Amino acid sequence: MARPSIVWFRDDLRLADNPALRAAIDRGEPIIALYVLDEESPGIRALGGASRWWLHHSLVSLGERLRERGATLVLRRGPAERIVRELVTDASAGAVFWNRRYGGPERAIDAELKSGLREQGVEVASFAASLLFEPWTVTTGAGTHFSVFTPFWRACLALPSPRSPLPEPREVDGIRRSMASDALRDWDLLPRHPDWAAGLRETWEPGEPAARRRLRAFLEDDLATYDRARDEPAAGATSLLSPRLRWGEVSPYTVWHETVTAGHGGRFLSELGWREFAWHTLFHFPELATKNLRPEFDAFPWPPLEPAHLEAWQRGRTGVPLVDAGMRELWTTGYMHNRVRMVTASFLVKNLLIDWRRGEEWFWDTLVDADEANNPFNWQWVAGSGADAAPYFRIFNPELQAKKFDADGHYVREWAPESLGDDGPEPLVDLGETRTAALAAYEHVKRAA
Ligand code: FAD
Description:
Blueprint: E1 5-9, H1 19-27, E2 31-37, H2 49-69, E3 73-77, H3 80-91, E4 95-99, H4 104-119, E5 123-127, H5 149-158, H6 198-203, H7 208-221, H8 226-229, H9 242-246, H10 252-262, H11 266-284, H12 307-315, H13 321-333, H14 338-351, H15 356-366, H16 374-383, H17 398-405, H18 410-415, H19 431-448
The chain binds flavin-adenine dinucleotide.
């Protein structure tokens, strides 16, 4: 009797370059494609609102694409370990395949499942698909992990080049029996009361085909000017691949190889390198979202939270044009340009003196690319407490940043037009005074170092 293969989709919602799916096809038995919404396992971070929106649409797309090729996507909700075990038993599955995850709680679940299922005689195999370099393969001469980006990336580039991407399968031989599946709408991933997702719908098309189109358009239209224009928020010069990489609608291997083929990609590839660095840092420091990577920052004397200041920042009502523009872009579209992410984050942490964790949580909830590694990693980078972080005293001046990177005001005019001109709102805080206060607070960190 056939013992089907389960392909457990996680952060890899694609058919092309999906080694777990490829392994199941090669095994030759009928396939069950599974996605588990896990909101219960200990330590798993609940998805933010914008992420839930993206996930819903990406699952619709994946489900359709599987159906066209002969398989059904089974949806189940619950603690992943129990759900996968139950499905193995229900379907008398002979094998389970997945692509690896690198967060602490996720790894614990996967390791437990792997050993448990193998003891039952079920074949289990996992694959590298979400990172170009496995975290345990990139080490310093002393065998430790890197805390500075440049030598980290140099070490990555000295390793064998990332493998070629696997082609997209034309057929996926799904199991004939119908398997119980949740209805996606019952997961309530889309906001309803109120429906705040209009701006997301206008901005994005989740799913693998749109991700591939975006990659191609970026390589054809923007790669050549990327180095020069990538810091200008109004230029539309970056790839907008971050949510697609977050959800695995396109694989980093595909992005890597197509960029190398298109040429001129060094700077762009090194941004993919920052993504690798963030994930490797999370792998070695699973508490990245809650704990300072540099413990001397535990001594930072955060003043009591002023909720009105946090809210003004969240809503884009600080009276600082570039900050307000960025926060409104985020609220409306689920995305913010990288330069503006740095400026808004610096303003929260160093001008409003609000703990980086509050900002990280807001981004986590509102970004469509909210990523377990990239988000806290970059927040800690801005706050000064992270790996290869900006020195604390480098406090972005949002006015100078606007002059430099949005010189003709296109970006601010789009998102916060009322702040241009003489009768714009007053800034919530004085940039100079708060900068001095932040530097004084930093003295505590220096003493603790
Ligand atoms: P491109 O410039 O086209 O870069 C290509 C890819 O490289 C990106 O899609 C992304 O995967 C990766 N990348 C680029 N910059 C970085 C970086 N600094 N760190 C890690 N990876 C990078 N990125 C996320 O993907 N998820 C997050 O949750 C996230 N939170 C951030 C929070 C703060 C405070 C800051 C300052 C940055 C954050 N970033 C995050 C990094 C960066 O802002 C986005 O990856 C980038 O703006 C996405 O746009 P893009 O795809 O057009 O980038």
